[in-house]
């Protein structure tokens, strides 16, 4: 059994799409762009905010900084409250913790936002040994964050697995040589076929499957 289970947040622990869509559309429409439909978020949640604005609205380089600043203000006021924890997440993570695993979160969401969100669901937040997020002054690649968590918790990469819902997560795990579990219920992969383009050790159709499938891995 793996000694360390690292899990993403957006699209893996929680469905944060309502808040993300609200803040992106509100920002974009104020700048003269038409809003996008909810389904447009497939493949966008998990990439950088800058890439998201370019991909969804075709924003120009000189508009991105304003858009990102406005988005962050909106998210801190309202967006961060608009999320739901996936059914089965808490039970699965608690069972893994009781089995002796260490647990960590890796996310490119701002540290303030992720701490606030986990603070709302304290019974989930208390399960994690480490939460690695971005700061205003420091932006890390997701692969660097995976390595940092392994270092902090003193667990080799070979004894760890990363659970994520997007190609960004899969590539980050591949870069550091870590096993990857694809969460097919999130907003990154549209299908198993999408995920199979990357090295995946496990495919998760729902959060309820996390404990059963992850606990059986060597």
Supply the number of helical segments.
10
List segments where confidence is low: pLDDT < 50 over at least 5 consecutive residues: none
Compute the average pLDDT: 95
Derived from helix and strand composition plus strand pairing, the structural class reads: alpha/beta
CATH class of the largest domain: Alpha Beta
How many E strands?
A: 8
What's the domain count?
A: 2
CATH fold name of the largest domain, please?
Rossmann fold
Strand order of the largest sheet: 5-4-1-6-7-8
Question: Helicity level, as a percent range?
Answer: 40-55%
- State the order of secondary-structure elements, H for helix, E for strand: EEHHHEHEHHEHEHEHEH
Instruction: Supply Rg.
Output: 17 Å
The proportion of residues in beta strands is 15-25%
Task: Describe the protein in words.
With 218 residues, the protein is an alpha/beta fold. The chain folds into 2 domains: 4-15 and 85-215, Rossmann fold (3-Layer(aba) Sandwich); 19-81, DNA polymerase, domain 1, CATH 1.10.150. The protein is 44% helix and 16% strand. It contains 10 helices and 8 strands. Strand 7, helix 9 (192-195) and strand 8 form a beta-alpha-beta unit. The N and C termini lie close together (5 Å).
Features:
single chain; 218 residues; alpha/beta; Rossmann fold; DNA polymerase, domain 1; 2 domains; six-stranded parallel beta sheet; 8 strands
């Amino acid at each position: 059994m793996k000694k360390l289970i690292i899990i993403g947040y957006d699209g893996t622990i929680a469905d944060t799409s309502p808040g993300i869509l609200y803040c992106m559309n509100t920002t974009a429409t104020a700048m003269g762009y038409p809003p996008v439909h909810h389904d447009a978020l497939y493949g966008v949640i998990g990439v950088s905010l800058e890439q998201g604005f370019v991909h969804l609205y075709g924003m120009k380089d000189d508009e991105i900084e304003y858009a990102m600043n406005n988005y962050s203000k909106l998210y801190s006021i309202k967006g961060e409250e608009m999320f739901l924890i996936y059914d089965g997440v808490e039970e699965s993570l608690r069972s893994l913790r009781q089995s002796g695993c260490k647990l960590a979160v890796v996310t490119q969401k701002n540290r303030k936002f992720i701490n606030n969100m986990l603070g709302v669901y304290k019974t989930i937040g208390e399960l994690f040994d480490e939460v690695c997020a971005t700061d205003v002054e420091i932006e890390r690649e997701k692969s660097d964050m995976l390595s940092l968590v392994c270092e902090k918790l003193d667990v080799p990469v070979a004894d760890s697995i990363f659970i994520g819902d997007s190609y960004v997560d899969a590539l980050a795990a591949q870069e550091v040589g870590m096993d990857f579990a694809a969460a097919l219920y999130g907003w990154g992969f549209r299908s198993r076929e999408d995920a199979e383009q990357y090295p995946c050790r496990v495919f998760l159709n729902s959060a309820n499957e996390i404990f059963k499938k992850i606990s059986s891995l060597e």
